[in-house]
Amino acid sequence: xxxxxxxxxxxxxxxxxxxxxxxxxxxxxxxxxxxxxxxxxxxxxxxxxxxxxxxxxxxxxxxxxxxxxxxxxxxxxxxxxxxxxxxxxxxxxxxxxxxxxxxxxxxxxxxxxxxxxxxxxxxxxxxxxxxxxxxxxxxxxxxxxxxxxxxxxxxxxxxxxxxxxxxxxxxxxxxxxxxxxxxxxxxxxxxxxxxxxxxxxxxxxxxxxxxxxxxxxxxxxxxxxxxxxxxxxxxxxxxxxxxxxxxxxxxxxxxxxxxxxxxxxxxxxxxxxxxxxxxxxxxxxxxxxxxxxxxxxxxxxxxxxxxxxxxxxxxxxxxxxxxxxxxxxxxxxxxxxxxxxxxxxxxxxxxxxxxxxxxxxxxxxxxxxxxxxxxxxxxxxxxxxxxxxxxxxxxxxxxxxxxxxxxxxxxxxxxxxxxxxxxxxxxxxxxxxxxxxxxxxxxxxxxxxx
Length: 450
Known about the structure:
With 450 residues, this protein is α+β, with helices and mostly antiparallel strands. The protein is 25% helix and 25% strand. It has two domains: 8-177, Chloramphenicol acetyltransferase-like domain (Chloramphenicol Acetyltransferase, 2-Layer Sandwich); 204-445, Chloramphenicol Acetyltransferase (2-Layer Sandwich).
């Protein structure tokens, strides 16, 4: 929600519906993994230098949105409880709320001067009400900057979609606007996460989930800073660690770097160990692969723990190798075992267990490497015209607590370039932004990183 004295002012709201009505009585049950994300929200902002429309109410962009929403009846529907008490979407074509807002700054000024709290004003933040039957779980906020720039802020409950789903939805809207084929048509299927293997609930990952479910995380003020690393800087540092990890990816390098630097900001632990929760999209990890168009949650969380001695910055290449090895060892069996574990927690009558905080209590690092195909990112291929791709994309997760969150995103430069969004307790962020090990990569500091 936009705050008082904010530079962002919402001046109108409309409801976008699909151009073809949905059949009566259609419902979509949310999966067990969807339910597991129930405490969180997702907020993705796409920044464009040029405004692609005149008046949104009558522009073809709105027509394209209505057309693409025909493919997404779960997006225009409303949440309700089924007979077992689990969430499902009633596909009643109630529509998506579209808010229009003005920003009292140019885009360049905004990216230099806004903090993470202000950037949140570009999207809609609201908890699910007790009675959500008329509440829109998806919101689009169109933010027009002085001088012509525009930012599209997409928000939804994490139960309904993960960052990949939101990215594909937005990209499909732009493809519809350009009258191009939808590259990744949406897949809605309650059986996608069902497999035929004998349930297995005795792997490291499901043991980790059981521990996470019992963790308590105190509430402190969290802030976010954004670091943009160039293709040349990442290439240089991958060369530096080549002897220790020849197959390191930009994500593994940056996860190791930020993990070691954040660890230095934390108070010493009694067991002298540091843990990193690594969040991977598993659409391409399982066989047969799940379509990128799968709409819902396909995230796998696993835990890597190292001794304090191994976390020393002088051994960054060693940490990169351990992160690489951990990710390489995430197998399909691990993925399905977590699904099986959540299924095994059902209450009598089939109701899924209450959700717990998935981002925390330990530091969590999210990879978006799977949406980079070749050296091209799906996030930055959402172009209104061939020369008008986003200049920046941000991704926030709501209700993060504990040690913090690192999200490694594609960058507008593409290639090996990456954008890293770090959320930490407020008192720790200034030290991280000044950390010399990070500054050696000469990042451009954006939102909240000045």
